[in-house]
Write a structure and sequence with these properties.
about 300 residues, alpha/beta, Arc Repressor Mutant, subunit A, D-Maltodextrin-Binding Protein, domain 2, 2 domains, eight-stranded mixed beta sheet, two-stranded antiparallel sheet, about 20% strand, elongated
């Protein structure tokens, strides 16, 4: 048997992309968008001849006409229309990626923070002014979302989450505080409307935390206690607002009701117990590696009102 050796290694490597220079592509895209070489030249601060040569280079490289030229005007051919659509998408994506890289660079003046909506509205947002006074060089891009997060694909520097879901080991998790929770309502509702009788209350439920009351009853050995009425809302934030409006009692958690308890807009007459969950900062790497993230994390951790 004779062994033959194939010296053709062309399949061992990916084919080289047959792409025109980026400058020619941007010239083509501008000309196609304006349907005019002159307007494209004005936008890109080039001459009419430069645009024409760039388009000619594109046509020569691809081997088809991209524009039909009639009566001193240019019109996209079918091939030109296809290339224009793809070129626009590609240049937009490239521009967005470059912007995202800039925004998430450690020297960027932006810091993108993803935070659970209720925590953002009831605790974080009222305090961001104080953070801005300490760090006027940073602009916080606050995005409201809860649950699992992909920091890279969602272009976020930090996520603040209640740790009631699995968090990938790829992330750095910095606990902020242990969550405690209990029934909350207004002083008047507790003292006068229901006469300090929990079973006479309207229990307010959140569809995002549907088992909050059940877990509290188990933790406090009050499984047999039942409410006079129950009402459901789409979000935890709404249940707390309803309690503040004297519509019933809701399970409130720290730090979400911290300001309300401090001002006595709400009270927790039966106390608060640990839920077994923490609030935490989630980052791609140790916060100390990025001065923007370090500044924000230090501020969060050092803010006594969250503890």
């Amino acid at each position: 048997m004779v062994n033959t050796v194939n010296n053709n290694h062309t399949n061992d490597y990916p084919q080289k992309r047959k792409l025109p220079p980026l400058s020619a592509l941007t010239a083509f895209e501008a000309a196609a968008r304006h349907q005019s070489f002159s307007r494209a030249a004005e936008e890109l601060h080039l001459t009419h001849g430069a645009i024409s040569r760039a388009v000619g280079q594109m046509e020569e490289r691809i081997g088809v006409s991209l524009f039909a030229r009639r009566n001193r005007r240019v019109y996209l051919t079918v091939a030109g229309q296809r290339l224009f659509k793809t070129a626009t998408e590609a240049l937009d994506a490239l521009s967005q990626t470059v912007e995202e890289i800039h925004r998430h660079d450690s020297a960027s003046p932006f810091l993108t923070v993803s935070c659970e909506p209720s925590l953002a509205m009831r605790w974080l947002m009222p305090r961001l002014g104080a953070f801005r006074e300490l760090h006027p060089e940073l602009n916080i891009d606050l995005r409201m979302a809860g649950g699992p997060i992909d920091l890279l694909s969602e272009n976020c520097d930090i996520a603040i989450r209640r740790t009631d879901f699995g968090i990938s080991d790829d992330y750095c998790v910095t606990p902020i505080l242990e969550e405690v929770a209990g029934p909350v309502c207004t002083p008047d509702y507790w003292n006068n409307t229901i006469g300090k009788d929990l079973e006479k209350a309207n229990w307010l439920h959140s569809r995002t935390r549907p088992d909050a009351w059940h877990h509290w009853k188990i933790a406090n050995d009050m499984v047999k206690v039942k409410p006079a009425n129950e009402q459901y809302y789409d979000h935890f934030f709404y249940t707390l607002q309803a309690a503040q409006n004297q519509l019933g009692m809701a399970i409130g958690s720290q730090p979400l009701v911290h300001d309300d308890l401090k001002s006595e807009r709400l009270i927790a007459p039966l106390g608060m117990e640990s839920t077994g969950y923490d609030y935490a900062l989630i980052t791609l790497d140790s916060p100390k590696h990025d001065p923007r993230i370090a500044a924000f994390c230090d501020w969060i951790m050092g803010n006594s009102t969250i503890k």
